[in-house]
Design goal:
heterodimer; A: alpha/beta; Transcription Regulator spoIIAA; 5-stranded mixed sheet; globular; B: alpha+beta
């Protein structure tokens, strides 16, 4: 897997570290769909801070991840879209319609709410 | 000023290489970070068009120089099946490959100049330019 997936409480965090090929993205999609069920995850955070390009294929795949996770009972938050990347997506006409976004990982985790009692505390 | 860079395109990994090279040349050519990102994204779209429709081809990146401005030319060339109706292919939302059809029209929107020449059976050449302002 090109993208490490961390588990924090009942939230899965896909922490993208470097540029991703189309295959890396589809692998991430399939892996997350599987793990949402395996770990009974309630939320998925996709951290795209390290992505310097978000083109039509990447946008489509991220939407697919979010919709698939939703059908499996988990909410997805995309965090860390860089300002230039956001501008470029607007120019291209790409949207992440129906996908929740947040500025950074902390905001994303906050959107997914606190972990249930007894679970690990979020943030530091 | 750097010479032209040729990137052979055959796999999805080559798409990443092409856009990274494009960003490097754009940075060296004095483009803003925003323009670097727009150029890299446009390269990503035309490179994917090669992988999906023609299997292989190449991207040629050339720095441009004119009085008062610099630019970058991106040529995406393949010898694939060609595009039967380029006008239709450039329409938002038109796709033959299970995508959203935003790739080529999007690339045209974010570059300053965009030209597509395609001969069915002989391949496609897309030439795009962006200028510093």
């Amino acid at each position: 897997m090109a993208v490490p997936i961390l588990k924090q409480g009942d939230v899965l965090i896909a922490s993208i570290q470097a540029a991703l090929s189309d295959r890396d993205l589809t692998e991430l999609r399939d892996e997350l769909a599987d793990r949402v069920g395996r770990f009974r995850a309630r939320g998925v955070v996709i951290d795209v801070t390290a992505l310097d390009v978000l083109d039509s294929f990447a946008a489509r795949t991220i939407r697919a991840i979010a919709y698939t996770a939703k059908l499996r009972g988990a909410m997805t938050v995309v965090v860390g879209i860089q300002p230039e990347v956001a501008f470029s997506m607007v120019q291209l006409g790409l949207t992440l319609e129906g996908v929740t976004t947040a500025l950074d990982l902390e905001e994303g985790l906050a959107l997914l709410g606190p972990a249930p009692q007894g679970g690990p505390r979020r943030g530091g | 000023m750097a010479d032209e860079v040729r990137v052979p395109i055959a796999t999805d990994g080559d798409i990443v290489t092409a856009r990274q090279k494009g960003r490097e040349l754009a940075a060296a050519g004095g483009f803003s970070r925003t323009d670097q990102t727009l150029i890299a994204t446009a390269i990503s779209e035309v490179a994917r068009n090669i992988v999906v429709h023609a299997e292989r081809g190449e991207i040629i990146l050339s720095p441009l120089e004119q009085p008062g401005r610099r630019g970058l030319m991106v040529v995406a060339r393949d010898e694939g099946p060609g595009i039967a109706d380029p006008e239709l292919a450039m329409r938002d939302g038109y796709s033959t490959a299970n995508s959203l059809g935003m790739g080529l029209p999007g690339a045209r929107r974010i570059m300053d100049e965009f030209d597509l020449v395609s001969t069915p059976g002989h391949g496609t050449t897309i030439t795009m330019k962006k200028w510093t302002r």
